[in-house]
């Protein structure tokens, strides 16, 4: 019997689904609470130091590379990164099955745990922004509201002490009681510290707000969330409900794992690599910020290069680097550029 056009289309669709399933089956569809905490704890190194709290990016040009990144990065793989919220924008662009955020500061792990709780607690972008800054949700926002409309509505909303206290309690309850994470007093204090900064400064929060290196002429949180790529398209993690839901789903399934680690250290990157190899996974993207500059200054870039070469890579695995310039103007921090991971670590030893 000759197959009909409809039969062929159905078969093609089923084949596409099965191929996608094979491509993503190597990584778990969900981590248990115990496995999430075990991976985060066992992969981590000792707490280190940096010159700033780094509670948010100062990279106004971080979206400029996203269109090119989306052409090369393969979805359903593993994402790696460093630092705060800019990772979320690169994650929604590359659609990984799992993500690891490796940062030298324990404070960044606490920041990521705060974000995890807020994603899980919030039903949509407007509720997320309300909880993040402890501000009552204004009227008139819908699922179709742009990021610019959302932040314009929240900009002059009075911060609420009551919401701050309620949200902080909800964050710790979710992490400790729902998930059962064994937070130390240091972690509880760290989560309170970072959440208080968001409450205190609101959408006006800047990289330099908490006494960080640099002046005050830097983008605010609102500036970063309403930024665009070079074509004027906002590709940020709060640009759409679809972007928000992708992250909420990843966080709710414990698939974004924060790790404490020095990029030039002996353990964290290699531990992530061993885990990914055991799962048969490949790293699609590794956001570096400008960490390599500090590694070179400390004479340990070679250690980092060797660790990266031990990761499961292919010819599409891509670095995202933060760079000076890019026509952003004074005071607007860093732009971004892409690099091929295999080519850039060629000659390094696993």
Describe the structure.
This protein has 350 residues and is of the alpha/beta class. The chain has one domain. The chain is built from 15 helices and six strands. The chain has helices at residues 5-24, 33-43, 66-72, 86-94, 106-121, 125-133, 147-154, 161-178, 185-201, 221-225, 241-252, 268-278, 291-297, 301-309, 341-344, and strands at 78-81, 98-103, 256-260, 283-289, 318-323, 335-340. It has a six-stranded mixed β-sheet, with helices on both faces. The longest helix is centred in the N-terminal third of the chain and has 20 residues, at 5-24. It is globular, with a radius of gyration of 20 Å. Mean pLDDT is 90; it is low at 7-24 and 326-331.
The total domain count is 1
Task: Write down the overall mean pLDDT.
Answer: 90
Question: Structural class of the helix and strand makeup?
Answer: alpha/beta
The count of strands amounts to: 6
Uncertain residue segments: 7-24, 326-331
Shape: globular
- Strand proportion, as a percent range, falls in 5-15%
Q: Count of helical segments? A: 15
Q: What is the percent of helical residues?
A: 40-55%
| Biggest pleated sheet | 6 strands, mixed
Strand order of the largest sheet: 3-2-1-4-5-6
Alpha carbon gap, first and last residue: 55 Å
Task: Write the H/E string, N to C.
Answer: HHHEHEHHHHHHHEHEHHEEH
Summarize the structure.
By secondary structure, the chain is of the alpha/beta class.
């Amino acid at each position: 019997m000759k197959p009909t056009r409809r039969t062929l289309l159905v078969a093609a669709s089923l084949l596409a689904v099965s191929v996608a399933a094979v491509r993503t089956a190597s990584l778990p569809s969900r981590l248990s609470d115990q496995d999430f905490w075990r991976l985060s704890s066992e992969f981590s190194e000792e707490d280190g130091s940096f010159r700033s709290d780094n509670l948010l990016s100062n990279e106004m040009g971080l979206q400029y590379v996203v269109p090119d990144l989306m052409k090369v990065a393969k979805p359903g793989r593993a994402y790696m990164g460093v630092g705060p919220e800019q990772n979320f924008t690169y994650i929604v662009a590359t659609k990984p099955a799992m993500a690891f955020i490796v940062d030298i500061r324990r404070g960044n792990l606490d920041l990521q745990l705060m974000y995890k709780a807020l994603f899980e607690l919030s039903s949509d972008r407007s509720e997320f922004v309300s909880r993040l800054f402890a501000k009552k949700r204004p009227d008139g926002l819908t699922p179709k509201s742009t990021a610019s409309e959302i932040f314009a509505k929240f900009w002059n909303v009075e911060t609420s002490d009551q919401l701050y206290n309620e949200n902080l309690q909800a964050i710790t309850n979710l992490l400790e009681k729902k998930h059962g994470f064994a937070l130390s007093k240091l972690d509880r204090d760290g989560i309170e510290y970072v959440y208080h900064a968001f409450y205190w400064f609101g959408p006006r929060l800047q990289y330099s707000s908490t006494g960080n290196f640099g002046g005050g002429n830097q983008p605010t949180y609102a500036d970063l969330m309403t930024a665009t790529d070079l074509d004027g398209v906002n590709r940020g993690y709060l640009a759409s409900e679809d972007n928000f839901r992708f992250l909420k789903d990843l966080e709710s399934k414990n698939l974004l794992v924060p790790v404490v680690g020095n990029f030039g250290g002996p353990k964290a990157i290699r531990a992530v690599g061993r885990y990914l190899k055991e799962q048969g996974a490949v790293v699609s993207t590794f956001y570096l910020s400008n960490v390599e500059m500090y590694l070179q200054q400390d004479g340990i870039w070679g250690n980092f290069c060797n660790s990266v070469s031990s990761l499961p890579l292919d010819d599409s695995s891509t670095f995202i680097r933060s760079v000076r310039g890019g026509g952003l103007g004074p005071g607007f921090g860093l732009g971004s550029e892409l690099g091929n991971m295999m080519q850039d670590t060629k000659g390094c030893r696993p």
